């Protein structure tokens, strides 16, 4: 394990100081629970789009996706296509409606609160089970970010892996605890721009040193020509329909990611969603395909094969850049990690403070109490996720794929259909959340045949079917006031 030089360490410290400074400023601006959890619904289109993209991509876009491209080649393009389509569909189909509906439903800050108020559900089940689903799958998601942080500090600072994970979580907790959503969103913009800079710089310099794109392609072909074939795996076998559907199916997950949907609810105006969508899709295209370029650059440029493919970005950066520049670019990994974990911790704390805690205690909480419970929840959830991240052999992409599928299948169909179907019922929504989440949990434990299909795809489909069937069967319980309220909200589109 190598140690960083003084210039690289200085670059890291400058980055951390900027992030903490933004967090402190946001702390001064945070006056209420709405400010803490949604930034007072005043985000500009650019901040909404870039912070959503940065919180979405996490450490996997600089570690997991380049690592996948390093060992699988252009097979990784299918994931990028699916994700880019997912980003576009998410913004175009959900952003404007969710911004309007959540504001109209008594300023619903969280997704469980939105579902409960959307159907005027008088039972605790829909709200509580949706909250539990968020907490369960986000523990794995946050854990994946801490795994990435552990690998970063272990590789470049020489920290013991477990201490590296703890270092990551302490840094993230400091500004998330105090600044809340404003700190998270503003730092996400800064961190997102740093991520993009890193994703551009590494492949551009590798290509220039290799003598151009064609020369780099020749070097990759000498290693393994199958890596440059979009329709074959690295071993030369043709990609089957199941593999292509599984990889592209990642795009379905966007409909159920609370940390991304929070940006829709927080955007300044529903009319800003179109501009934000254009920025978000452009951002996604650049980042995903540049991440694949990083992985392929590693195949062409690194003198030795990596034992851990997810360290390809780190290895390239240390090899080709001056230590000061390397420090800035390696800080982008920390930026990617922090920009996602902070958002996820905030969503979890909001769900605990706004949804579960009042249900359990049956108390109406003051603004100060809600902020206090939210901050305590951030610490507890971060500690639990830290325990999950303590295995140094864990793969970032594997853990992310499980959490992404769980959230996408359990919440995605329920939220999406609720925005469009007037006659959807609370029973249908509850069935969708349960069926989607349970399908992912069970599917991920099975192997062979149809069970090699990515769990998100069957989970999403079965959840949507459950919503429709249960809504039709329970349509007698749909109150006329709920339908009238839906019509009123829809009239504002």
Topology diagram in text:
Blueprint: H1 6-29, H2 33-38, H3 45-57, H4 64-72, H5 77-104, H6 111-118, H7 125-157, H8 161-210, H9 213-223, H10 241-248, H11 258-266, H12 273-301, H13 312-320, H14 323-361, H15 367-388, H16 396-418, H17 426-443, H18 456-473, H19 480-490
Helix pairs in contact: 1-8, 1-14, 3-8, 3-11, 3-12, 3-14, 4-12, 5-10, 5-11, 5-12, 6-7, 7-8, 7-14, 7-15, 7-16, 7-17, 8-12, 8-14, 8-15, 9-12, 11-14, 12-13, 13-14, 14-15, 16-17, 16-18, 17-18
Describe this structure in words.
The chain starts with 5 loop residues before the first helix and ends with a helix. The longest helix is centred in the middle third of the chain and has 50 residues, at 161-210. The protein is built from 19 helices and no strands. Helix 7 packs parallel to helix 17 (426-443) and helix 12 packs across helix 13 (312-320). It has helices at residues 6-29, 33-38, 45-57, 64-72, 77-104, 111-118, 125-157, 161-210, 213-223, 241-248, 258-266, 273-301, 312-320, 323-361, 367-388, 396-418, 426-443, 456-473, 480-490. With 493 residues, the protein is an all-alpha fold.
